[in-house]
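re: that chain from earlier
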Amino acid sequence: MGETEFYKANSVKEACDLLAQFGERATLLAGGTDLMVLVNRRQLIPEVLVYIGECGLNYIREEETGLVIGAATPHVEIVRSELVQKKAPLLAKVISTIGSPAIQNQGTIGGNLGNASPAADSAVALLALGASLKLVAAGWERTVPAADFFVGPGKTVLKPGEIIQEIIIPEEAAEYKWAFRKIGKRRADVCPTVSAAVAVKTENGRCKAARIALGSVAPTPLLSKKAPEMLVGKTVDAALIADVAKAVAEETDPIDDVRATAWYRRRASEALVKELLSQVIG
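^ sequence. v structure.
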């Protein structure tokens, strides 16, 4: 194999055109915090690198659809954004726990999602917020719910030639009470053993809407299907919280690995959901 070809896309259209031109030979590069590790270890030798870090995908703005974040926006800009802190404080909190300061400055939210790691922190937050992803390619675009984006470890619904253009967080996300916590071997710069985010909306003492998301406990970041069924329309008490936590833990499909056993992850999932729901509901 010859040397890697490098192309810098100056616009989203140019990035899509390059992907259409080179097909499966092309690999996207933005922050490179995960990709370049693989390249340096010779675990990946891309034929063509398409750099999208300066093609107009770094932005945070408010639109009619809600809060919109460009896929190449670095983590640190999301954490510092007053708009994110106002409209989606859960996302700001979760992003602030990703990696080290170096990773925060270089890594991007689109890269964190595109890697499709079951432990992706940003995915847990976006699932809890009911976010969607806008995907674009040469000749078409589409929007998919974050809950439908991940299909397996390292696998997404992205078609050949498609890229993540932006993340859309609905306006109503700001109305939810929320809580987040992750468990790991240490407090910082760690891949979570288990993580969980809870977003709940109440009205007149009853749960009006609820979303519970977990990371590192299934082949993909997990959005609970049972939680809304059990919570919505109910007056939430300690007994119901315990039942919901147990049901959510039963939805998980964890594995044994170097960070924890499946048994531990399932037990930790139940404990985290119980803790976070109790915190949010009060």
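The chain is about 35% helix and 25% strand.
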